[in-house]
Automatic annotation (TrEMBL):
The lineage of its organism: Eukaryota, Metazoa, Ecdysozoa, Nematoda, Chromadorea. It comes from Caenorhabditis nigoni. PANTHER family: BTB AND MATH DOMAIN CONTAINING-RELATED, MEPRIN/TRAF-LIKE MATH FAMILY-C.ELEGANS. This is BTB domain-containing protein. CDD domains: BTB_POZ_ZBTB_KLHL-like, MATH. Residues 143-210 form the BTB domain. Pfam families: BTB (PF00651), MATH (PF00917). SUPFAM superfamilies: POZ domain (SSF54695).
């Protein structure tokens, strides 16, 4: 399964004529998965440009992040499949560089638009950090709608939520009375759970065993596929929860890859009776067929 810790770091660097040979320009930091990411641009003595991805973690101990990156410059693909490993004291991986003679091909003049499309393939030593604040001045400035959940206000962007959730796309663009409102109340949702859901949607925090079930429930309700994918990846590759816990979530939310992995981990010592849900209807006919076949294979 493809790892779903994916995000994009974008930066437009202006006033490039002021960047001297041997100098750096630094982009703005964005927080994704508990660490800060930023692009820096280096100009060497020959006038070539080196776009460089920085990873800055608040952790003081040993940590590492392995990534696979595609670099987009001026809207055009520049480099693909670059492998970088970040640790607490260095970055390992070859830096791409844009030759001065190729600047025009990538729209580089007084400015340069650079994107790193990042996919994290492995993380170690990174702990969950403080949640994103959806009620501060930064959130309010970027917001065009306020969601009221319980006693909390969440200042969010309609386009971003609509892009990742069919529920919010319909809510904001449909014929509902709420579609034209700047303040919308979401009823019967726990604000803490909604905060956790947004943290994963915005990729600012890491999933944990005690939050994944509730986040998955909201992701299913809001039809936020990227959050569902991140929950499934966590349950498959990182969660230490029991087989029963994972299997029941896989069946309930139709997580095909997690279901298949759970079946592959069943052995003759597995308590199959324990895996059967209280409501037998939670298993459709195909699941019952797979489940029965697996159990019988160990007789």
């Amino acid at each position: 399964m493809t790892d779903n810790k994916e995000f994009i770091v974008r930066q437009v660097f202006n006033n490039l004529s002021s960047l001297k040979n041997g100098d750096w320009m630094y982009g703005d930091a964005v927080k994704r998965f508990g660490v800060d990411w930023r692009i820096q641009l280096y100009k060497n003595d020959s006038g070539n440009m080196y776009p460089h991805l920085l990873c800055e973690s608040p952790e003081t101990g040993d940590w590492s992040i392995i990534t696979n990156c595609d670099v987009i410059v001026g809207g055009k693909s520049f480099k693909t499949g670059l492998q970088f490993k970040f640790t607490h004291n260095l970055m390992i991986g070859g830096l791409p560089f844009i030759k001065k003679r190729d600047f025009a091909n990538y729209g580089i003049d007084e400015s340069a638009s650079i994107e790193f499309h990042v996919r994290i393939t492995e993380m170690t030593g990174i702990k969950k950090r403080k949640s994103m604040n959806f009620d501060d001045d930064v959130a309010k400035e970027a917001s065009d709608v306020v969601l009221i959940v319980g006693d909390q206000k969440f200042y969010v962007n309609k386009m971003y939520l609509s892009l990742h959730s069919t529920y919010f796309k319909t809510l904001f663009s449909g014929n509902f009375s709420e579609s034209k409102k700047s303040i919308i109340e979401l009823k019967d949702i726990d604000p803490k759970s909604f905060q956790n859901f947004l943290d994963i949607l915005y990729a600012v925090s890491l999933l944990e065993n005690d939050t994944v079930s509730e986040i998955l429930k909201l992701a299913d309700f809001f039809d936020a596929k990227i959050v569902v994918q991140r929950c499934e990846e966590f349950l498959m590759n990182h969660s230490k929860e029991s087989l029963k816990f994972k299997f029941q979530l896989a069946i309930k939310y139709k997580l095909a890859e997690l279901k298949n992995k759970c079946f592959s981990e069943m052995t003759k010592t597995t308590n199959f009776k324990e895996l059967i849900p209280e409501n037998a209807a939670d298993f459709d006919s195909e699941v019952w067929k797979e489940f029965s076949s697996k159990a019988i294979s160990f007789l």
